[in-house]
Amino acid sequence: AMAYRSFQNYSRAEEGVVFSQRWALIAGIAVGALCAVFTAKPSFLFANVAQSSSTTSIVSTNQASLASVVRLPAIQADVPPVVGQPMISSTLQAVKTANDYSLPVGIGAVLLLISSVVHNYLKPANVPLAIPEVVIPVKQAMEKAVRLVTGMADKHTSVAMMAVASEKKVVGIKSPVFNETCDQTGITLTRFMLEVARANPDLQELESVFASIQTACKTIAKLVKRSAIDGMTGLQAGGGAVNVQGEEQKKLDVITNDVLKRALKFTGRMGVIASEEEDVPVEVDNTMDESYGKDVLVEESGGRYISVFDPLDGSSNVDAGIPVGTIFGIFTEDDDCKLSDNFFDKDMSEAMKGCLKSTLKPGTSLVAAGYALYSSATHFVFTLGAGVNGFTLDESIGEFILTHPNIKIPPRGKIYSINEANRLNWDAPMQEFIDGLATGKNRGKKAYTSRYIGSMVGDVHRTLLYGGVFGYPADTKNVNGKLRLLYEAAPMSFLIEQAGGKSTTGLVRIMDIPPKNVHQRVPLVMGGSDEIDELIQLYQA
């Protein structure tokens, strides 16, 4: 649509230039013609004279000359003056009239020539017809495109007309296609997942999982917005409540964990749930009510998916109204666990061993990941392994609307987001990397700007949209980093990589790290591909 408008605007500009040139030419001709007409009047250049006396004297003189030359007085006598005088007089009058018009006609021609020269000198330069912007062809087969056709009826609920094509697709995942949309609602998250399920029948159960996650996120958004009004700020139980990481729990930490855990449990699709606020993974009981089996034949899935999440990332900032968020990752229940029996404690139950085997998987095993950001608006961004799409909550209809399709992070940005108070505690490659970004001594040859919220979801969201680098590296106080691998670093790295970026510890790709425990911490730096490649090269030097 943008290319079409650009083409149309340049066409109109070209028409305006041609139109103005035509008027300039007509004006030049008109000026020359008017000058010729006005200058043709005798009173303009000549004084009025008596035409009869002048004619008589000229005729008499000419007759005398003719008689003297030819010497035929008889013939002169035979020519009646009444007849000869008018004929010669009319001839001479015609000659005089031609002579009278020659000067003004010449002046008019000169003025017309001058007008043409002035027009050619002052006319606007020809504007070449603009070449429309190249439209990315819609890829078919395994790289089927996401086509969006929506209107702009409501700026809060609709998306501009666009064509989006994901470049890299995971084999077996087909992106949804939208040939028609509602101008009033746009493409909702509910419809998006319905189309995903239609295009990928094996992902039908994932549709109900996302329906529950978005319901939980809407609830948490409401809780965060009203936390100060409803008295949900401050520490849990007045202080003293500590999670397994040794962090004091906020009231909202406990409440939001319960909201999301129950929402996932109620899907009937979860086998295991692991949370930042839980000491260990929890097995979900998917037993159905006995009444279901009496009249209706129901096939029980047994919990196909495993969910890991941080219910309220950045909760230490929530009392100050700073953006916070929810991070989640989804695995499938399978037999690819590489944990041997020696990995587990001897007194560990078989059920707990099964939970850990289902949960302790590297990021490469994720089938979905995403986050919700609770800020000036509530955003929901996720990936199914086939690109990254962002939705915004329209509170008037209670639906997430697709507003950021096919998010791509540029190879190099201009913002770095990191806690620079720890600069002196970083290792040498990290210090050199950040110094290079700050001073412009990097491959991009430009100085970066520092922006740091202190909430991972907020900082990563900005990095996804604007480009740049986000990091929480290891330091002398946190030798293993501070962010949790399973439910923070891995899901966010999955998103960044699907958007075209990279994520690393500096030495190892985050997605390749197998967790040793549920709450394992890792160093993390993520961003544009060029920026992360530069950091890796510094560590390898």
Automatic annotation (TrEMBL):
<dbReference type="GO" id="GO:0046872">
    <property type="term" value="F:metal ion binding"/>
</dbReference>
<keyword id="KW-0378">Hydrolase</keyword>
<comment type="similarity">
    <text>Belongs to the FBPase class 1 family.</text>
</comment>
<dbReference type="InterPro" id="IPR000146">
    <property type="entry name" value="FBPase_class-1"/>
</dbReference>
<keyword id="KW-0812">Transmembrane</keyword>
<dbReference type="GO" id="GO:0005986">
    <property type="term" value="P:sucrose biosynthetic process"/>
</dbReference>
<keyword id="KW-0119">Carbohydrate metabolism</keyword>
<comment type="pathway">
    <text>Carbohydrate biosynthesis.</text>
</comment>
<keyword id="KW-0479">Metal-binding</keyword>
<dbReference type="InterPro" id="IPR044015">
    <property type="entry name" value="FBPase_C_dom"/>
</dbReference>
<comment type="subunit">
    <text>Homotetramer.</text>
</comment>
<dbReference type="GO" id="GO:0042132">
    <property type="term" value="F:fructose 1,6-bisphosphate 1-phosphatase activity"/>
</dbReference>
<protein>
    <recommendedName>
        <fullName>fructose-bisphosphatase</fullName>
        <ecNumber>3.1.3.11</ecNumber>
    </recommendedName>
</protein>
<dbReference type="GO" id="GO:0005829">
    <property type="term" value="C:cytosol"/>
</dbReference>
<dbReference type="GO" id="GO:0030388">
    <property type="term" value="P:fructose 1,6-bisphosphate metabolic process"/>
</dbReference>
<feature type="domain" description="Fructose-1-6-bisphosphatase class 1 C-terminal">
    <location>
        <begin position="409"/>
        <end position="539"/>
    </location>
</feature>
<dbReference type="InterPro" id="IPR033391">
    <property type="entry name" value="FBPase_N"/>
</dbReference>
<dbReference type="InterPro" id="IPR028343">
    <property type="entry name" value="FBPtase"/>
</dbReference>
<feature type="domain" description="Fructose-1-6-bisphosphatase class I N-terminal">
    <location>
        <begin position="187"/>
        <end position="405"/>
    </location>
</feature>
<keyword id="KW-1133">Transmembrane helix</keyword>
<keyword id="KW-0460">Magnesium</keyword>
<dbReference type="GO" id="GO:0006000">
    <property type="term" value="P:fructose metabolic process"/>
</dbReference>
<dbReference type="GO" id="GO:0006002">
    <property type="term" value="P:fructose 6-phosphate metabolic process"/>
</dbReference>
<dbReference type="Pfam" id="PF18913">
    <property type="entry name" value="FBPase_C"/>
</dbReference>
<feature type="transmembrane region" description="Helical">
    <location>
        <begin position="20"/>
        <end position="40"/>
    </location>
</feature>
<dbReference type="Pfam" id="PF00316">
    <property type="entry name" value="FBPase"/>
</dbReference>
<dbReference type="InterPro" id="IPR020548">
    <property type="entry name" value="Fructose_bisphosphatase_AS"/>
</dbReference>
<keyword id="KW-0472">Membrane</keyword>
<dbReference type="GO" id="GO:0006094">
    <property type="term" value="P:gluconeogenesis"/>
</dbReference>
